[in-house]
């Protein structure tokens, strides 16, 4: 019996409570069942869940057998109809008998489901499921894309296109990957090193996924680290609410990509996670992604208790705030299989021939306790599952408002606390909520706070945002921004279910007037990636001050032209040396958004496994050595 209950528990608990489904199952120490058995049951039942939902609903099983929860019904009916040995509990066990007594009707409905799909045999139905076509009767249904971030701490986009994604055809729009069974890959235009494939493409068994070279992360969830735009000349960063760690590791990857020396840089990311269980997940994620060196994990520490004036944080120049929120923008748990749960027909009387007359009264689930376990909720209910996995029944607008008020109070407190860090110059605030109360309203209140005014914090305007996000078309809600068009423009939104294929998300950036702290970074020239332009010696090139007639590097010997000269030189020499990849010498718009520029063969199709395994760290070292070579040659 524990097999079914334990599997149900994993399928119904939040992924935020411990990483991917697989890692949560295999990482659980006190599991009574075999982890492999639990994992297989969870995955297989989920694959079949749309069909099982139909079968269970049509047989009215949940109303007839009240002991069985929706998720348990999917697992038990799966094994009854599809497992070689049937339900894996003793024949006399109550759960087994309550399903088996409906075997004839369940089998008949299962056959009807197959026929509705115009499949002549069970084998044909199995093949249909394996092709990822099972969870719908409508094969044209638009799916949420599977967004995959290429973790540049471990690999490159080019390397992944040639290995993990070899054989997928390059798509020009995200639409192409939203079809079941699509064999396309879309390279994102806004976020570098982000791709999308069909959610029916199983990447979880790939080496790249297992080794942390690719990370499943919704496009919108990649916005904050990219907007924060950490640079090598900046100092430390705080990620205030870090687990499971997607944004922490994204920050680390951006930071590392901007270090001139792959092993250099003393910058740190302070990753706070107040929940110990989630902090463990964060540790695993940070280690898998290869960002341990850069990240200091503050496990079990509340960011609100961190003292801004403490010497540990005196070098903190940027903060990423991604606090707990209502989670109303979440499309589906990213690492979870798609699970369709049957809904009991609450209000229909039992059939006259029912043998279970005592069980006819199904309690109104909305009258049950306010907080319930995930497996208890039913799709007819209004429940709010926040992104920490907490489920709250919200039957009325007042209840929803009360929950949102509590969340927004905490979110504002967090933002105000972040404003107090003495060296901070940049802050991002994000939620995966669609509610203005947690988004634009928090931003407006934060801007009105006395600390924001005293410390000179203002919104990062759209015009000043990094290119991919400046170009992102979905902006804040003008009404929610109290009619202030500039505030609405500065805010970034992503809508669940629109043509961009993202989750619902909100993001705003705050910057502090540079006269309030010394803005060293602003004194230097940058390219369109935000990378500092360096001279031949590797020193940053100073930006030309307004009205000044000359520029100088810290060594007073290289003007911006020198940097241009180096780039031109490197291009000439590329063929001869052959060791630099495009991503080290970004020159074109396409490269800036992570599109590899095939130099010889511009095939849209991604194929041919790489002969040459790229090592981004080696490439950076190679680049440094090339600069040295050039320098010597010039002398
Ligand atoms: C929305 S999740 C963060 C997701 C994460 N940024 C990511 O992208 O993977 C919010 C997390 O912040 C943690 N948290 C909430 N309040 C906190 C606080 N005051 N200090 C530290 N962690 C906090 C929660 O436990 C939860 O794990």
Automatic annotation (TrEMBL):
GO terms for cellular component: nucleolus. One of its GO terms (molecular function) is RNA binding. The active site is at residue 432. Belongs to the class I-like SAM-binding methyltransferase superfamily. RsmB/NOP family. It comes from the Eukaryota. S-adenosyl-L-methionine binds at residues 241-247, 273, 322. Keywords: Methyltransferase, RNA-binding, S-adenosyl-L-methionine, Transferase. This is S-adenosyl-L-methionine-dependent methyltransferase. The keyword Secreted does not apply. Residues 564-585 have a biased composition (Acidic residues). Coiled coil: none annotated. Residues 331-375, 543-635 are annotated as: Disordered. Residues 136-513 form the SAM-dependent MTase RsmB/NOP-type domain. Transmembrane segments: none annotated. One of its GO terms (biological process) is rRNA base methylation.
């Amino acid at each position: 019996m524990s097999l079914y209950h334990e599997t149900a528990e994993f399928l119904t608990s939040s992924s935020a409570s411990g990483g991917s489904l697989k890692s949560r199952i295999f990482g659980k120490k006190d599991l009574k069942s075999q982890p492999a058995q639990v994992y297989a049951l969870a995955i297989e039942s989920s694959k079949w869940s749309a069909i099982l939902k139909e079968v269970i609903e049509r047989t009215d099983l949940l109303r007839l057998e009240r002991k069985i929860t929706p998720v348990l019904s999917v697992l038990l009916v799966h094994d009854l109809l599809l497992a070689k040995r049937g339900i894996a509990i003793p024949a006399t066990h109550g759960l087994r008998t309550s399903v088996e007594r409906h075997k004839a009707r369940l089998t008949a409905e299962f056959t009807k489901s197959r026929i509705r799909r115009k499949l002549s045999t069970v084998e044909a139905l199995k093949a249909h499921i394996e092709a990822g076509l099972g969870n719908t009767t409508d094969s044209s249904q638009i799916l949420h894309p599977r967004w995959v971030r290429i973790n540049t701490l471990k690999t490159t986009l080019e390397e992944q296109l040639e290995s993990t994604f070899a054989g997928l055809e390059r798509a020009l729009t995200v639409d192409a990957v939203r079809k079941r069974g699509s064999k396309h890959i879309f390279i994102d235009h806004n976020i570098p090193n982000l791709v999308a494939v069909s959610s029916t493409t199983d990447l979880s068994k790939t080496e790249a996924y297992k080794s942390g070279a690719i990370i499943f992360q919704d496009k919108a969830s990649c916005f904050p680290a990219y907007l924060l735009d950490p640079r090598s000349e900046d100092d430390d960063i705080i990620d205030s609410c870090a687990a499971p760690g997607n944004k922490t590791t994204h920050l680390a990857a951006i930071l590392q990509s901007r270090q001139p020396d792959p092993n250099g840089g003393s910058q740190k990311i302070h990753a706070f996670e107040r929940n110990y269980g989630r902090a463990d997940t964060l540790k695993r994620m940070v280690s898998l992604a290869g960002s341990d060196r850069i990240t200091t994990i503050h496990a079990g520490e509340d960011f609100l208790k961190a003292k801004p004036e403490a010497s540990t944080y005196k070098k903190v120049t940027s903060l990423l705030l991604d606090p707990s929120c209502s989670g109303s923008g979440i499309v589906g748990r990213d690492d979870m299989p798609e699970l369709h749960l049957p809904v009991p027909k609450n209000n229909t009387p039992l059939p006259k021939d029912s043998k279970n007359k005592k069980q006819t009264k199904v309690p109104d689930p909305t009258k049950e306790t306010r907080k319930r376990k995930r497996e208890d909720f039913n799709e007819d209910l209004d429940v709010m599952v926040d992104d920490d996995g907490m489920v709250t029944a919200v039957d009325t607008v007042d209840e929803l408002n009360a929950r949102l008020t509590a969340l927004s109070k905490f979110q504002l407190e967090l933002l105000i606390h972040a404003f107090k860090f003495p060296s901070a110059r940049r802050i991002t605030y994000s939620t995966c909520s669609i509610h203005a109360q947690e988004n634009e309203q928090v931003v407006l209140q934060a801007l009105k706070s006395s600390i924001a005014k005293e410390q000179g914090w203002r919104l990062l305007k759209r015009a000043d945002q990094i290119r991919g996000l400046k170009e992102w078309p979905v902006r804040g809600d003008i009404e929610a921004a109290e009619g202030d068009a500039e505030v609405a423009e500065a805010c970034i939104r992503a809508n669940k279910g629109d043509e961009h294929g993202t989750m619902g998300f909100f993001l705003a950036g705050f910057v502090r007037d540079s006269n309030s702290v010394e803005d060293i970074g602003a004194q230097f020239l940058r390219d369109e990636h935000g990378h500092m332009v360096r001279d031949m010696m590797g020193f940053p090139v100073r930006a030309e001050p307004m009205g000044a007639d000359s520029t100088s590097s810290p060594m007073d010997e290289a003007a911006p032209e020198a940097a241009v000269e180096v780039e031109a030189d490197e291009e000439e020499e590329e063929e001869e040396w052959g060791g630099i990849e495009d991503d080290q010498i970004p020159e074109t718009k396409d490269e800036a958004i992570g599109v590899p520029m095939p130099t010889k063969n511009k095939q849209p199709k991604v194929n041919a496994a790489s002969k040459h395994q790229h090592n981004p760290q080696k490439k950076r070292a190679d680049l440094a050595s090339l600069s040295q070579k050039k320098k010597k040659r010039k002398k």
